Amino acid sequence: xxxxxxxxxxxxxxxxxRKFFELAEERDDVISLGVGEPDFSTPWAARSAAIHSxxxxxxxxxSNRGMSDLRRLISDYSxxxxxxxxxxxxxxVTSGASEAVDLALxxxxxxxxxxxxxxxxxxxxxxxxxxxxxEPLAVPTSAAxxxxxxxxxxxxxxxxxxxxxxLCYPNNPTGAVMTESxxxxxxxxxxxxxxxxxxxxxxxxxxxxxxxxxIASMPGMRERTIVINGFSKAYAMTGLRLGYALxxxxxxxxxNRVHQYTMLSAxxxxxxxxxxxxxxxxxxxxxxxxxxxxxRRFVLSRFEEMGLDCFxxxxxxxxxxxxxxxxEAFAEDLLKQEGVAVVPGRVFGEGGxxxxxxxxxxxxxxxxxAMNRIETFCRNR
Amino acid sequence: MDTKRELLSLLxxxxxxxxxxxxxxxxxxxxxxxxxxxxxxxxxxxxxxRAVVDWDNTDDQHVAAFVELNVELDRETGYEEIADRIARxxxxxxxxxxxxxxxxxxxxxxxxxxxxxxxxxxxIAPIPEITQTVTHFIMQTYKEAGIDFGDRDDDDRLSVSP
Lengths: 381, 162
Known about the structure:
The complex is a heterodimer of chains A (381) and B (162). Chain A has 381 residues and is of the alpha/beta class. Chain A folds into two domains: 7-42 and 283-380, Aspartate Aminotransferase, domain 1 (Alpha-Beta Complex); 44-280, Type I PLP-dependent aspartate aminotransferase-like (Major domain) (Aspartate Aminotransferase, domain 2), CATH 3.40.640. Chain A is 41% helix and 12% strand. In chain A, strand 3, helix 6 and strand 4 (135-140) form a beta-alpha-beta unit. Chain B has 162 residues and is α+β, with helices and mostly antiparallel strands.
């Protein structure tokens, strides 16, 4: 047989989201609450800067690590989370935060390494770990504990033996955030057990009722953490594919070694958009965040009214209610009967079963209709 | 942002939401929203609630013009007195004192160009303090009150994504 995938690739199943995507595509009256990206367009100033860069013919590669202006602006921007990274040696601009995650996994995992990931979680970490030759170790979190990762949960899962932890808060799919003291407890556990951390903080700017705390700002963590962030969620730039990694110079240097041979540099047009985004789009981000926050309160209050248990998510743009039964059947029936698409929680791993991921990155008008339909569906079920 | 400020920002995007829906979005009860609305109205912060109409999509004749007004003040008459006299006309949609080459910028509406012209020449121009008027008929509206008339807001995202 020709062109057979290797065991690592063959061992990774197709994404569970795929099926719902196909079901939702079959009809055109669907309101989708299954979307993992902003409904806003990239702020015009950033788009306009990208257009201008194209008109001026700025279409060559940039430096491997990204344009120096951009790295300087990222360094300044990151100070709001208590970071201090040198733009010349400690920042790497990537093709989306996804590339940064993949680079980190490929750079720091040795074959057979154990990599702890809290569950439920974004669907790409586990395959990424497997592609890199690592062994994923699931660490369950639960609604009873507001989907927060604790040292106790890490310990119970056997994470003390892990080489690496992938941490994602604010979390996709739950919308959970972690407070400073909760982050500190996990940080202490990592220091005590000599665990490195890949902290995917792509939703950091979308934190409501409080501030995001980065694990890299905790004592003893800077030297063992790669912080990943990007422009997709905060600046509504998903399709422009631009993210970055922050970390100690030697670690970023190692990631850059993979990056320079595989990607060369992140998309140039997107880098120009990002420079402008950081220079002038703070107000737009504030406005979008305020709008998400209103929708969040609306959705949570509607779930409460219809009697669906839903913990108070405080980040990203997801709510994660319990559906009181089989989440996959619920999601499928809801789509077929009422034309509302949500993603069954089990797709996101252990602890997700029995829940639904409901994205509120959709206009208030659509959200209102969708919530009414879900209410009707629940009443008839 | 405090709740009152947030209510204001919500209303300035969409004033037609029900009190219940506003309450859900602000995380307070409906009675609180009613109270804040009363306050905002009583203190004169919220002056009214109106639809943003694209008249080109109706069968009605609707003509609007921006008019520049130059005025000459004297000891007895200030901007306030002149503004008050102009604002009383129902035809005047908006009236602002502006910096620059002229004094007042007003928007006037009517059923036809003739209608608007007649109003300017019969009612506005004769006001003694007004020394000059320049009328700009509006030919096409692309955006009004923050709403882009060209934007149909098509959602081209994948219906389900991670």
